[in-house]
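Job type: complex structure
Entries:
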Amino acid sequence: MTEKAVEETFVALFALTDLRQIFRDAKPTYQFNSEQKKQIREIIEKLRKSLNVIEKELIK
Amino acid sequence: MKQMIEDIEVRAREELFININPIQAAGRLTPEAMKAIIAYGDGYSTCDWCKKPFRLDKIRRPPINEFHLELAKFVGMDQARVFPGARRGFQAVVSSLVEKGDSVIVSSLAHYTEFLAVEDAGGIVKEIPLNKENVITEENTAQKIEKVKRETGKLPKLIMMDHFDYMLGNEHNINGIAKVAKYYDIPFLANCAYSMGVMPINGREMGADFLVGSGHKSFASPAPSGILATTAEWADKVFRTTQMVGDVTGRKFGIKEVEMMGCTLMGANLIAMMASFPRVRERVKHWDDEVKKSNYFIDEFLKIEGNKVLSEMPRKHTLTKVDTTGSFDKIARTHKRRGFFFSDELKKRRIVGEFQGATRQWKLNTYGLTWDQVKYLAQTLHDIAKKYGINVA
């Protein structure tokens, strides 16, 4: 258990919150514009990185 | 939608639907506020670094002290405090100024919590009548003051006036009314629950002695949250500190403010309000665009035969009261779902927030919707009208 895993948990939660905001902006048709698509890609990438750190720190 | 825990469902209506609820629009959180709630949800989370003099608005980490100073500047007043809702702000002022039997002047469209604040202090509410346009004028205010003076032999102790009212979203002549209050030397409270946080507000320019705002109505903050700001002249009275001394222990709590009941808005609500503040400061600069969207929607709404707008026109606010007695209510009269047919049709098209089942007079708010969402909303109403044979110009 490390501080890093806790930090990355918040990073992931905050990234998901940013995704939540994109849903709010694009509802109800969810026709994402190119900027939103870019943001979604960045969020997913950030989440993957955070989950990797969490996995490495806590399980492996 | 999945249950969050046991029988509490996840609330995802802001992600899934266009929400036109009249009171929810400008209280929707910013992503920063949502993050603040994640991180600061624990009870006394703001108290980690509370040091002498042990009062919420003095805490520097997170920068609560700085926020209070900035907040006062933002609304053009000398001092500000956060409260659990605008209502507690009314209560603090009324409780400080009004004694049993005193009269307090309010609008005929005043929020019920203004009534409660006066009642709690033992005062008596006196309402200013509306003019033909459903607006409070300075003339009517002066007449009411004179009437109260004639009837009670005393001037009212306070005037509380809504900048924009909650019933119609009409603008009332707050500057003119403040001048009348000044003329009679009566303290003046501007209720900015529907304006502070969505449009630029300057209490000094308004001529207000007290400004009250709502976090959960107009400041992208969770409920309950609110703001009371005042001038240096009034701060010592309304933000007075306790003088009480325990008769056995001799204890005293000198720094604590009586009307705040010590520390007021602790924890996640305050931090979320602080987290939203940068965006709120920015968004008030774009109020004109919000009003444009409101008027665009209303123009489209009025293309539906039989539709009417009960609020003042053109719209100066995003909250509007409409009347669909001559359109959707005609359908409701014979529909097996009665007025709920309209809610069903809206929900099918991913719109919620209207008063369910109401097809006569109801309110909506377009604040914060994108242009695409506003156009979608207008088109949806046209589509529903056409489906039921109502003419659309």
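Summary: The first strand of chain B starts at residue 3 and ends at 5. The radius of gyration of chain B is 23 Å.
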